[in-house]
Specification:
Helix content is 73%, strand content 0%. Helix 4 packs antiparallel against helix 5.
Length: 141
């Protein structure tokens, strides 16, 4: 449990804070790895030639937009104190979680042939984004 200081705020020097800081940084790295994967995906999509031009351009645009969003999420999660202590930081975690959980759901309901590895990776990524919201809360809050 994170111990509150005399002002009732999280003690930034507690062991729980440092563990959560490491956890949030791991989330940032996971998102940066996903962004790198999506860069490679965008490159592969740009090289496809057997698609209708409108579908081809839409896929490339979605891949680039998704890459930028995930890159932003990975960079923003690097500021662990703000992620844990501000409303916008908590909303960022919820948005990241929602992105991956919705992507997992899309794999089940929209993919012509659902991929279990994609489903599991996206579901786990979505769930781990929720851990900082519920772990290590200060007492008395």
């Amino acid at each position: 449990m994170v111990s509150p200081n005399r002002l009732g705020r999280i003690s930034w020097f507690s062991e729980d804070y440092f563990l959560m800081k490491i956890f949030i940084r791991i989330l940032a790295v996971i998102n940066l790895l996903f962004a790198a994967f999506h860069v490679l995906l965008a490159i592969q999509l740009s090289r496809l030639t057997d698609l209708h031009p409108q579908i081809h351009s839409l896929l490339v645009m979605l891949a680039i937009g998704g890459t930028l969003f995930i890159l932003f999420l990975g960079i923003a999660l690097w500021w662990t104190r703000e992620v844990r202590s501000t409303t916008i930081g908590k909303q960022l975690l919820i948005l990241g979680s929602s992105t991956y959980i919705i992507r997992a759901a899309e794999e089940v309901w929209m993919a012509p042939e659902p991929s279990i590895p994609i489903l599991m990776v996206c579901a786990m990524a979505g769930l781990v984004h929720l851990v900082p919201l519920f772990g290590g809360r200060p007492s008395g809050r």
